Amino acid sequence: MYSKEDLLYRIILIVSLIIGIIICSFVLIVIWQQRKWRKLNMQMIAIEIDTLENERKRVAADLHDELGAALTAMKFKLESIDSASAGDQVRVSQCVRLTHDILYRIRRISNALMPDSLVNNGIIASITDYANLVNDHSKLRIIFESIGEADIPFETSVHIFRILQEIINNTLKHANASTLKIEFIMEGDKLIILTADNGRGFDFKNATKNKKGLGLGNLQNRADLLGGEFHLRSAPQKGTRCHIIVPL
After folding, report:
1. N or C: at which end does the chain have fewer Cβ atoms within 10 angstroms?
2. How far apart are CA 62 and CA 69, in angstroms?
3. Topology adopted by domain 116-248
């Protein structure tokens, strides 16, 4: 027979084991639910981004193939008009210039939605073209360097392009910077992307807390979809630096 002390000890031990099992089970369920929620959330983000990219492709194609073609035809018609007076010729010339300007803007918008160079020549060419476009039409000077070569899948290239497009647009809108350096470093089975501007920077913790419109969530979401890492450092008057790691 057990003594009262032994019996009490065994009861306490059994109760403790039961409580421990309940706590462990609860923790495991919470972890499982968190992982399930995160997986479901990433699937929803992936679907949303995929839908957005498909819509961008459609709009870019419509702009380039339909509206662009119609405006080009109209430009040729205008140029073929034999004006009876000098005043009419001036007006025709103004219409031609206006049509040419609209065509340029349409092509620029179409290229931003889905660059031809990204589809035909890959990420390096598309970033180079986009950087040149910004350099030609803004005060920001983008310096783009690529070290090494790698075969990057098209869908991965789209995400990388959107990440850098967001960073460039943020720099243009918010940083008041004169230079932005972008580096691609191919290192084994991963791509390392480094960006740094000399702008006014911002309070990163405060911007993240208040969810201000800097697109930080979009940057992180795209990096997560690639199975990569996204790190950003910034402080007032110290510029902004991004460090992105993409597995290939």
Report:
1. N
2. 10
3. Heat Shock Protein 90 (3.30.565)
133 pLDDT band, cuts 50/70/90, is confident
Residue pair 215/232 in contact by the 8 Å Cβ criterion: no
Q: Which own/partner pairs from 104-112 qualify as long-range (CB within 8 Å, at least 24 positions apart)? A: 106/63, 106/64, 106/67, 106/68, 106/71, 107/64, 107/68, 108/133, 109/63, 110/59, 110/60, 110/63, 110/64, 110/68, 111/60, 112/165
The domain segmentation of the chain, as residue ranges, is 1-114, 116-248
Q: Parallel, antiparallel, or unpaired for β 229-234 and 179-187?
A: unpaired
Dihedral of alpha carbons 24, 27, 29, 32, sign: negative
The encoded tokens of residue 227 equal 């199975």
Q: What DSSP line would sit under 98-123, residue for residue? A: HHHHHHHHHHHHHHHHS-HHHHHH-H
185 burial via Cβ count (<10 Å: 0-12, 13-18, 19+): middle
pLDDT tens for 13-43 read 888 888 888 888 888 887 887 777 777 666 6
Helix (H, G, I), strand (E, B) or coil at 178: coil
Give dist(CA 10, CA 83) in Å, integer. 108
Q: Dump the DSSP string for 185-223.
A: EEETTEEEEEEEE-S----HHHHHHHT-SS-HHHHHHHH
Tokens of 217: 């969530």
234 contacts 227 by C-beta, under 8 angstroms: no
Cα end-to-end span (Å), the chain: 68
Residue 140 DSSP label? -
